[in-house]
Amino acid sequence: MAGTSAGTCIEPGARLLFHAGHDRQRNVAAKPTNHMLAAYKPSLRQYLVSNHYMDTLAFHTMSGQELISKFAPLSKDFLDTHR
Q1: What are the pLDDT digits (tens) for 66-77?
Q2: How many structural domains are present in the chain?
Q3: Rounded CA gap, 3 and 57, in Å?
Q4: Which of 27, 33, 63, 66 is buried most deeply by CB count within 10 Å?
Q5: Is 3 inside a domain boundary?
């Protein structure tokens, strides 16, 4: 289990879906998209933007295991206390 933002934990078997934010008419909108992006760690935020995950309302799925391995390297202290 590891976090991708402050206070968030992700299990390896989780599946998370990312998409752009939208207005009430379901038009992609910068303000709600940026609001969501602000909740993520910088490395995840950069990945989502670079890969255009936040450009459309289409869902882009990432597994918990992928998120953990790419964006939440665990510290030795964490591993020692959670064995």
Answers
A1: 988 888 765 555
A2: 1
A3: 24
A4: 33
A5: no
Q: Is the pTM of this model over 0.90?
A: no
Q: What is the DSSP letter of 75?
A: P
For 23, residues 6+ apart whose C-beta sits below 8 A from its C-beta are: 29, 32
Q: Are 54 and 48 in contact (CB under 8 A)?
A: yes
Stretch (H or E) spanning 50? helix 42-50
pLDDT for 41 equals 87
Dig out the tokens for 48 from the structure.
């989502």
For residue 57, being part of any structural domain is answered with yes
Cβ–Cβ under 8 Å, residues 71 and 4: yes
CB 33 within 8 A of CB 54: yes
Dihedral in degrees, nearest 10, Cα atoms 38, 54, 4, 76: -120
State which residues form the domain around 67: 15-81
